[in-house]
C-alpha cells in the first residue's frame, strides 16, 4: 500500500479538506491544534493527557502523517485527527472564527535565507488569521531554536490582537527536533506565548 492509499484508509486521517467542512467544529468541545506535528510525540502526549479534548494535527508531509497515524492507532487514541495541509490553507478553509482553544508550533521551519523569508509562517497576515480562529483569552505557543526567526516574529505582532510573552527556555518537549538540537549542544530555545486579548475580523471558511 502506498502512502496516498494509507492516507485515505486511516480513520485518524482526513485527507480531503472538503471533508472537514462537513464537520461542525463548534460542537466538538475543546479543540487544540498543532501546526507541523512532525513525529507526533507532543501531539500524542497531549491527547493522552486530555482524552476529553479534540486534537487536530496539521502536517504537509504525507509520510509523517502515515507514521503518526499508526502510532495513534496503536495507542487507541480516538481524540486525534490528522490533516495533510499547509497551515495557512487549513486555518483559512477549515476553522470557524473563535473555535480553537489552543495552538502550538514547535520548531517551525525558520527559512533562514533572506530570499526564502517570504515562506515563513507567523507573518502579520497569518497572525491576524490565527487570532480570528482562537477563542478570546486562549493562547498560541511557538518555540524555535532560531533567535533571528524569533525576532522576526516579534516584529510581526503589532496590531494582531495578541498579548505577547517572550522568553528563553530549556529543552522540555522531547520531540525529535529538540533531541537533535540537544545533540548539537543547544540548550536554550526561544518561546513566544500569544494570548488573544482583542478579536480580529477575518473572512469565514
From TrEMBL:
Organism (species): Chlorobium limicola
Organism superkingdom: Bacteria
Alphabetical list of Gene3D superfamilies matching this protein: Vaccinia Virus protein VP39
Keywords on record: Methyltransferase, S-adenosyl-L-methionine, Transferase, tRNA processing
Annotated InterPro entries: SAM-dependent_MTases_sf, tRNA_(Gua-N-7)_MeTrfase_Trmb, tRNA_methyltr_TrmB_bact
Any one annotated GO CC term: tRNA methyltransferase complex
Cited function: Catalyzes the formation of N(7)-methylguanine at position 46 (m7G46) in tRNA.
Record's protein name: tRNA (guanine(46)-N(7))-methyltransferase
Group of enzyme by EC: transferase
PROSITE patterns in the cross-refs: SAM_MT_TRMB
Database matches in PANTHER family: 3-DEOXY-D-MANNO-OCTULOSONIC-ACID TRANSFERASE/TRNA GUANINE-N 7 - -METHYLTRANSFERASE (PTHR23417), PENTACOTRIPEPTIDE-REPEAT REGION OF PRORP DOMAIN-CONTAINING PROTEIN (PTHR23417:SF14)
Reaction(s) the record says it catalyses: guanosine(46) in tRNA + S-adenosyl-L-methionine = N(7)-methylguanosine(46) in tRNA + S-adenosyl-L-homocysteine
HAMAP family: tRNA_methyltr_TrmB
One example GO MF annotation: tRNA (guanine(46)-N7)-methyltransferase activity
EC number: 2.1.1.33
Amino acid at each position: 500500500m502506498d502512502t496516498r492509499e494509507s492516507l485515505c484508509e486511516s480513520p485518524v486521517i482526513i485527507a480531503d479538506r472538503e471533508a472537514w467542512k462537513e464537520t461542525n467544529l463548534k460542537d466538538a468541545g475543546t479543540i487544540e491544534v498543532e501546526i507541523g506535528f512532525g513525529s507526533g510525540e507532543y501531539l500524542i502526549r497531549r491527547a493522552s493527557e486530555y482524552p476529553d479534548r479534540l486534537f487536530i494535527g496539521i502536517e504537509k508531509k504525507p509520510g509523517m502523517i502515515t507514521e503518526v497515524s499508526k502510532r495513534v492507532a496503536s495507542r487507541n487514541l480516538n481524540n486525534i485527527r490528522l490533516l495533510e495541509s499547509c497551515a495557512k490553507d487549513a486555518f483559512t478553509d477549515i476553522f470557524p472564527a473563535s473555535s480553537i482553544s489552543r495552538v502550538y508550533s514547535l520548531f517551525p521551519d525558520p527559512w533562514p535565507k533572506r530570499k526564502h523569508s517570504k515562506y515563513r509562517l507567523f507573518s502579520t497576515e497569518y497572525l491576524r488569521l490565527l487570532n480570528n480562529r482562537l477563542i478570546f483569552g486562549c493562547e498560541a505557543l511557538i518555540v524555535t531554536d532560531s533567535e533571528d526567526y524569533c525576532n522576526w516574529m516579534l516584529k510581526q505582532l503589532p496590531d494582531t490582537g495578541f498579548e505577547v510573552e517572550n522568553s528563553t527556555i530549556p529543552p522540555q518537549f522531547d520531540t525529535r527536533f529538540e533531541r537533535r538540537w540537544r545533540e548539537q549542544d543547544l540548550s536554550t530555545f526561544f518561546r513566544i506565548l500569544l494570548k488573544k486579548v482583542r478579536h480580529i475580523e477575518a473572512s469565514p471558511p
